[in-house]
UniProtKB/TrEMBL annotation:
Residue ranges, compositional bias (Polar residues): 1-10
Classification of source organism: Bacteria, Bacillati, Actinomycetota, Actinomycetes, Streptosporangiales
Species whose genome carries this gene: Nonomuraea mesophila
Region (Disordered): 1-25
Protein name, entry field: Alpha/beta hydrolase
Length: 61
């Protein structure tokens, strides 16, 4: 099995139909989509990014 990945889609990123293709070759455990923010999540919405990273790593434990 391939490594576990998390992705974070924002309005300016690729549309949702990318998910089925990603699931064909990767073990996707989370796929959150956000209605705000931009390509620099750490600067645009740091609180949302930190929450998502914590939830992702918590799910691996």
């Amino acid at each position: 099995m391939s490594p576990t990945y998390e992705t974070r889609l924002q309005p300016s990123h690729a549309p949702a139909p990318v998910r089925p293709r990603a699931e064909q070759t990767h073990h996707v455990v989370r796929w959150p989509e956000f209605g705000h923010g931009g390509p620099f999540a750490a600067l645009d919405t740091p609180d949302v990014l930190v929450t998502e990273l914590r939830e992702f790593f918590r799910s691996l434990a």
